[in-house]
Amino acid sequence: MQKVAFIINPYSAKKNYQPFLAQLKNKIDNPLYIISKSIEDSDQFISDHWDDVDIFVAVGGDGTISTVAKKLINTDKILGIFPAGSGNGFSNETQFTTNIDQLFSKIQHRKYKAIDTFTVNGKFSINMAGVGFDGAVVEAFEKTSRGFSNYIKTSVKTFFSYKPVSVNFQEKYKDYNGSYLMVNIANSRQFGNNAFIAPKANLSDGLLEVVLVKKFPFWYAVEFAYRMFTQKLKDNQFVKYLSVPEIEFSVDSKLWHLDGEFNTIESPVQVKILPNSLNILSE
Predict the structure, then answer these.
(1) All residues at 6 or more sequence positions from 173 whose CB lies less than 8 Å from its CB, including other chains
(2) Is the confidence at residue 1, as pLDDT, over 60?
């Protein structure tokens, strides 16, 4: 375990990181870790221990994981995960659980695989990015105490007041120009909490799924939710999918989220896949 380091986000989920830290100290003598107070803290810790660490384990949600992963792309370093976020979408998709013994087993076997990541106007993302409704929801959600129930409440409240965004694609995809409730860029299948917005997405296929969702009547919301949580969303009158390695478009909103973290991004927007750019622990 001497070549493993742990980056702990003390603010993730319910800020209850102490049980993980207690388990870690019980299993390893003098583990190498940081309780990170900022992105800068995490970046500096990784830089300081770059030469003597092979596996960096992110302890937190998708935003924490993305912060650590960004420093590891296109290198021989390996990402490990202990999920401690609100939705844990990326952790779910890469088969990491809150069982610390399973994590240690993966570390000891040191098996890993290369997966894709992507950028939105140069900003890094590992799992899911979005503009429109879900960007507005994340902006509002960050003002709450988080948690799945608060996310649902925020989503419902935002739905009734939110006006669709206008999207204009480059020439190749101009037939998809129009107004949308949201535009999602999916590297994996789910937002988190097993909400599968892109059931056919694959982390290692060199493609992104662009999910175009038109604003639907509220009566369809129950069916939309059912299909999303049962991996049955597909092309229909409200949902369209594009499988692309890159794409460019303009949108009349700057409210984005990248891996569940609120961002402002100006148009035009360039989205690009970074194929096989990140090594991650596997079974």
Answers:
(1) 242, 247, 249
(2) no
Listed range (6-15, 81-90, 112-121, 150-159) with the worst mean pLDDT? 150-159
Q: Is 119 helix (H, G, I), strand (E, B) or coil?
A: strand
Amino acid at 216: F
Contacting residues for 73 by C-beta, under 8 A, at least 6 apart:
117, 124, 274, 277, 278
Mean pLDDT of 107-123: 96
CA distances from 122 to 64, 65, 119, 132, 271 (A): 18, 18, 5, 19, 8
> CB–CB of 205/116 below 8 Å?
yes
> In CATH, what is the architecture of 123-275?
Sandwich (2.60)
Report pLDDT for 188: 97
Residue 89 CA to residue 194 CA, distance in Å, equals 7
The Cα–Cα gap between 228 and 25 comes to 39
Give 229-262 pLDDT, tens digit per residue.
Answer: 999 999 999 999 999 999 999 999 998 999 988 8
Please tell me the distance from the alpha carbon of residue 226 to that of residue 86, in angstroms, as a whole number: 20
CA distance 53 to 183: 38
- For residues 91 and 141, give the distance between their C-alpha atoms in angstroms, rounded to a whole number: 20
**What does CATH list as the number for 4-117?**
3.40.50.10330
149-152: Cβ within 8 A, 24+ apart: 151/86, 151/87, 151/193
Closest CA to 216 of 148, 160, 138: 160
b/e string for 167-183 if b means 16 or more Cβ within 10 A?
Answer: bbbeeebeebeeebbbb
Annotated domain spans of the chain:
4-117, 123-275
CA gap 211, 130 in Å, rounded? 9
The answer to whether 196 and 231 have CB atoms below 8 angstroms apart is yes
Q: Please determine whether the domains at 4-117 and 123-275 fall in the same fold group of CATH.
A: no
